[in-house]
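> example.struct
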């Protein structure tokens, strides 16, 4: 039992250290308003019926950066909708299963490419900040993690887990320094490319800088519970690099570990894991513009939902293997 206690505490300390590094390094997209030039091709990917497309188009019209072309990539979008009759909009039909963004390169003419999920919305100054970051720091690819705005108890239990797991496992500032390591497959809500990087990304693994949106980009979510669960499960698997063994170990140490310690050792020893969990939740909440008190109060239920996501990920993996065997 003592060895198990040491293992759990060691893992919690490592997780806290990664979160502390992210908190101190502050991996947020800074606000810049310098007047920069260059055509930006905004590619909006519409993937489901509950898309926030019209709100995103309105946000783009209100941007202070005007040199834009807007391309909508869709699978069966109703183009007879009067709200989509703007002649400045260009539509590209893509198979729903197609995830290779580089195939959109022939349709875009911009010096920069901004890929947005239709369930993302952006604030003024966002595009200026992206261009400035790409040019001044010579960064060919930037992945932005949008802030979450959960509504309803299910979203409040699930959505904060996406950033919580990511920020206590991965030091974001270090990612772009690791040659050949990218996170484009991790989060595709908002990607910004220089044109050359976009055209050659499938053959050249450019380093990706991963930044938090700093309240300049937000994810929106519908009320479909099954879709929310599926998206949360998908993000959880990506945060674990698709390795279910790592996911099982993580959930066991994070959820079951403190409970087992609480029943098996002196209660006074719980002060250390409780303090580490408290500080970790607070730091992640401030980094991602979430409500720290709410996350602390909901932490036990969120950990239960983390177990639910793991079970769903395992069941989907087994189902996929069964279909392949057939």
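> example.seq
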């Amino acid at each position: 039992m003592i060895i198990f206690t040491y293992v759990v505490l060691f893992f919690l300390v490592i997780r806290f250290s990664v979160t502390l590094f992210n908190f101190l390094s502050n991996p947020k997209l800074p606000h810049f308003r310098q007047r920069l030039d260059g055509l930006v091709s905004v590619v909006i990917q519409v993937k489901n019926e509950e898309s926030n497309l019209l709100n995103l188009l309105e946000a783009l019209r209100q941007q202070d950066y005007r040199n834009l072309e807007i391309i909508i990539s869709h699978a069966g979008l109703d183009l007879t909708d009067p709200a989509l009759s703007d002649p400045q909009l260009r539509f590209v039909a893509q198979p729903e299963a197609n995830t290779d963004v580089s195939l959109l390169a022939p349709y875009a003419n911009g010096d920069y490419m901004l890929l947005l999920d239709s369930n993302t919305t952006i604030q003024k100054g966002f595009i200026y900040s992206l261009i400035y970051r790409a040019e001044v720091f010579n960064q060919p690819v930037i992945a932005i993690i949008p802030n979450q705005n959960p509504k309803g108890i299910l979203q409040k239990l699930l959505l904060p887990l996406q950033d919580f797991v990511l920020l206590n496992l991965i030091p974001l500032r270090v990612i772009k320094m690791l040659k050949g390591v990218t996170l484009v497959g991790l989060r595709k809500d908002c990607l910004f490319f220089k044109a050359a990087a976009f055209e050659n990304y499938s053959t050249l693994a450019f380093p990706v800088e991963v930044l938090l949106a700093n309240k300049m980009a937000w994810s929106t979510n519908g009320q479909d519970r099954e879709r929310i669960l599926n998206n949360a499960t998908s993000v959880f698997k990506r945060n674990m690099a698709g390795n279910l063994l790592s996911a099982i170990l993580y959930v066991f140490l994070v959820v079951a570990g403190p409970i087992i310690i609480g029943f098996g050792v002196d209660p006074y020893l719980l002060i250390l894991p409780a303090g580490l969990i408290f500080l970790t939740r607070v730091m992640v909440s401030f980094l991602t513009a979430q409500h720290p008190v709410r996350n602390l109060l909901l932490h036990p239920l969120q950990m239960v939902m983390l177990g639910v996501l793991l079970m769903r990920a395992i069941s989907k993996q087994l189902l996929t293997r069964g279909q392949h065997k057939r």
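> remarks
Residues 230 and 312 are 8 Å apart (CA to CA).
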